[in-house]
Design a protein that fits this description.
- The protein has a five-stranded mixed sheet.
- By secondary structure, the chain is α+β, with helices and mostly antiparallel strands.
- β2, α5 and β3 form a beta-alpha-beta unit.
- The protein folds into two domains: 71 residues, no CATH class; 163 residues, Glutaredoxin, CATH 3.40.30.
- α1 packs across α3.
- 25% of the residues are buried.
- The longest helix has 29 residues.
- It has twelve helices and five strands.
Length: 270
């Protein structure tokens, strides 16, 4: 429809010498005549477009933005209708209100710069909408250092889930430092968490944690979420570090689909 309207507008301008018809004598447009004209004289389109390239560019950009928005909204609707169903282990460290109705599963890589952006956006979301979202972190590391950091997160969580999430935030804040100093920078973060180092070493050696990371990566691959960060929000797949507004779009559509609770009126006692 956007392209058709654009072509009709161009043809009208071309036919009228770019002079709009007076308001008091509007002209009716016959789509078939326009179609025939453009088929016989395609150069009219090129000539009209060449007269104001900037206006055309702005029109195309605006149309592309509208189209992207439509596709995003359609994707949310389709995702809610056929939701992905990741494994939700209550024994893993969760972040946010435990009673929050909307679940976000995050597939992340501690050494991925976009994941650091995604982590910031999630914190903004949780602060803006307390009690609405809860987050489960899953791992999809792409190098040995990122895998080791994921193992530390899971091992720390066995001692104290809150400290695991402190580790999560500190690693993303110090990501550039960790890239330079490697485990020396990580050890400084660990020292600030007041952990039982002996237990941490034993938990890191637990083969169940390595299997957990393997299942996380396999699940992400099953959902075609191979890049990081990726999210599943109320069953809807989100690729990349989505802004707060992106999560809000999903929440808005999800809320619209919920059935209203019928009010139970008290009966009169005779």
């Amino acid at each position: 429809m956007f392209k058709k309207a654009l072509l009709i507008m161009i043809a009208i301008l071309a036919l009228s010498g770019c002079q709009p018809a007076p308001k008091e004598t509007p002209q009716k447009v016959d789509p078939e005549q326009i179609k025939t004209l453009l088929q016989k004289n395609p150069k009219l389109v090129l000539d009209a477009l060449a007269k104001d390239k900037l206006a055309l560019y702005e029109l195309v950009v605006a149309g592309e933005k509208i189209k992207r928005r439509q596709l995003w909204e359609q994707g949310i609707s389709q995702g809610l209708a056929n939701p992905l169903k990741p494994e939700l282990d209550p024994g893993r460290p969760w972040h946010g209100s435990p009673d929050a109705p909307l679940v976000i599963v995050e597939y992340s890589d501690f050494m991925c710069p976009s994941c650091a952006t995604g982590a910031k956006n999630l914190e903004k979301l949780l602060a803006k909408h307390p009690g609405k979202f809860r987050v489960l972190l899953k791992h999809n590391p792409h190098d040995s250092l990122a895998k080791r950091l994921a193992m530390y997160f899971e091992a720390i969580a066995k001692q104290d889930p809150a400290k695991a999430w402190r580790f999560y935030h500190q690693v993303y804040k110090q990501q550039n430092k960790i890239k330079k100093e490697k485990m020396a920078a990580v050890q400084k973060i660990l020292n600030g968490l007041d952990l039982d180092q002996g237990r941490l070493s034993r938990d890191l050696a637990d083969p169940a944690l390595a299997q957990r990371l393997k299942r996380d990566a396999e699940e992400a691959d099953k959902f075609n979420l191979r890049g990081t960060p990726s999210f599943v929000v109320a069953g809807v797949a989100v690729r990349g570090p989505a802004p707060v507004s992106g999560f809000e779009d999903i929440m808005r559509q999800w809320q619209a689909k919920q059935k209203p609770v019928k009010e139970i009126k008290p009966q009169k006692v005779e």
